[in-house]
Write a structure and sequence with these properties.
Layout (H helix, E strand, L loop, with lengths): L2 H11 L6 H20 L5 E4 L12 H10 L3 E8 L5 E3 L11 H4 L13 H5 L5 H6 L14 E2 H9 L6 E6 L8 H11 L20 E5 L2 H10 L5 E4 L15 H4 L4 H7 L5 H13 L4 E3 L18 H9 L3 E4 L5 H7 L6 E4 L2 H7 L8 H7 L3
Parallel strand pairs: 1-2, 1-10, 2-5, 5-6, 6-7, 7-8, 8-9, 9-10
Antiparallel strand pairs: 2-3, 3-4
Helix pairs in contact: 1-2, 3-7
Calcium ion binds next to strand 2.
Length: 373
């Protein structure tokens, strides 16, 4: 049954005006669930953004281990490549925020990740920054944590009783020509493309055990060329080179108190522009979109609201799933999920699992202790 036929059927079966809002919610959930089933992707999806990165330093071993033990569906990571060609998991394109690069390599403190060998990156402390930034969540064992290779994240995904999938973003792909091909080679070598391994369980046994994500149209095309059968998500952003925004002041000109307040006022230039972007994604291999969200409490991960109900409708009508980033609070889950969101990227997978009524047996703090941190 097509998505349009499913909508029509549900609307026919539940007549009357009193039920209109409930009907809209039920319809979007049914549509999303159907699309997820067709793609072999868990619904609703719990995507541990840089691991359990509220509780442990982002993209490090404890962050991914806790996410796995909690029962997150996916370990999310940002893919970059070292000077000597190794694939690693790191978000920022420089090392200053999350390592001691300024101490270890002061002359290259602002240099891009691509100018460091793996051995140099492995000599950095990728955990102490977290203890300083979050004293309430600090742990002595976080000091000296290492940046991880993609291989090491895969080892973690494969290494426990829970078997999460991998949700891999090509980060700044223009800086890493050929990274899509390198990723295909690594996933092939590790047996993550093609049929699931014999005896696989959990998300690791599903067709959507790897999802590829990118903000860049060019990288989506390359991912599609290299891995046509692997699900792909086009991440959404508003502004120059991305979805056109209504003209307005820059942040500096706007006088807004925070970037979150500025982003929250941004609007797409037109429904037509948004729809054309989504249709391009569909035509170039995406099975879903990853829109930004404006969060209730603001903060540095609160961006333009690209999860308006009509936007999710546009995606669902074209057969695309909606995975929104990066949402950590129950208030926001309750506000955004009924709009037709099929899963969230979250730094707090434990909170999202609670919201989806799949609570983990142990809290992140207990798991960290058990894991020796
Ligand atoms: O990949 C989804 C979300 O992670 C996009 O934002 O900047 O955290 O990679 P970012
Ligand atoms: Ca990401």
């Amino acid at each position: 049954m097509t998505i349009t036929a499913l909508r029509t059927l549900i609307r026919t079966l539940i007549p009357g005006t009193l039920l209109v809002s409930q009907l809209a919610l039920a319809t979007e959930a049914d549509v999303g669930q159907t699309l997820a089933r067709q793609a072999g992707i868990p619904w609703p999806a719990v995507i541990a953004h840089r691991g359990a990165s509220f509780d442990a330093p982002e993209s490090t071993a404890p962050a991914y281990l806790v996410a796995r033990e909690l029962g997150a569906d996916y370990l999310e990571l940002d893919l970059q490549r070292t000077k000597d060609g190794q694939l690693i998991a790191l978000h920022d394109d420089t090392l200053e925020r999350t390592t001691d690069v300024a101490k270890r390599f002061p002359e290259r403190a602002k240099a891009p990740v691509s100018q460091f060998t793996l051995a140099e990156l492995k000599s950095l402390d990728a955990g102490s920054w977290f203890n300083q930034a979050h004293p309430d969540r600090a742990r002595p064992k976080f000091a000296g944590l290492r940046i991880l290779t993609l291989d090491e994240v895969i080892d973690i995904a494969e290494g426990g009783r829970n078997k999460p999938g991998l949700y891999i973003e090509t980060k700044q792909p223009k800086l890493f020509p050929g990274i899509e091909r390198d990723l295909k080679a690594k996933l092939t070598q590790r047996g993550w493309l093609g049929k699931p391994k014999a005896g696989a369980t959990g998300v690791a046994a599903m067709p959507g055990r790897v999802i590829l994500q990118t903000f860049e149209k060019g990288s989506l095309e390359l991912l599609q060329k290299e891995m046509p059968d692997t699900p792909k998500i086009l991440l959404l952003w508003l502004g120059d080179d991305y979805i056109p925004a209504k003209p307005g002041p820059t942040y500096a000109e706007s006088g807004e108190a925070s970037k979150a307040a500025y982003y929250a006022k941004q609007q797409v230039r037109s429904e037509g522009d948004f729809t054309a972007w989504i249709e391009w994604a569909k035509a170039h291999g995406a099975i879903g979109i990853g829109p930004s969200a404006a969060l209730e409490e603001g903060g540095d991960q609160s961006y333009a609201d690209l999860v308006k109900p009509w936007m999710n409708d546009v995606a669902h009508e074209r057969g695309l799933l909606v995975h929104a980033y990066t949402v950590d609070s129950a208030v926001d889950y309750a506000r955004l999920a009924p709009r037709g969101v099929d899963g969230f990227f979250s730094n707090r997978a434990a909170e999202l699992l609670k919201f989806y009524e799949r609570p983990a047996k142990q809290a992140p703090a207990a798991l960290l202790k058990q894991l020796g941190y």
